[in-house]
Amino acid sequence: MSDNNKLVLNSLKINPKGLTAYKILNLLQKSKSIQPMTVYRALKNLTKNGLIHKTNKNKTFHLCNTVHVCNTTEAHEHNAVLAVCNDCGVAEELKTDLFSKAIKNIKSKKRFNFNNFNLEITTTCKECY
Ligand SMILES: [Zn+2]
Ligand SMILES: [Zn+2]
What we know:
Elements: H1 3-13, E1 19-20, H2 21-29, H3 36-48, E2 52-54, E3 60-63, E4 81-85, E5 91-93, H4 98-104, E6 119-123
Parallel strand pairs: 4-6
Antiparallel strand pairs: 1-3, 2-3, 4-5
One zinc ion binds next to loops.
């Protein structure tokens, strides 16, 4: 794994509430001169490998919590299911394969591939309920 990928992973590790690409860039630029493109490339790469996930609602990136990413550099592709709070924006990756099973059975006219999907459930967390 490249150093830049590691830096991005670490910034997310210490910010469990998630960070936008812009905040990650700001954070890393405090200790290193790093180009926005470098950060975006790292985010794209880590997302593709399933090590981080992005919420559509908040545009924040989160460390995948189904694997100890600090110890692995291997791609970890899986169907991420994120729950995001409508009020405070807290996100949690749900450890479930329930949706994988259900979604694979959906008939699609456009022949979408349901082997690899991301699902985001926007709802209300316990704190805001
Ligand atoms: Zn994950
Ligand atoms: Zn909340």
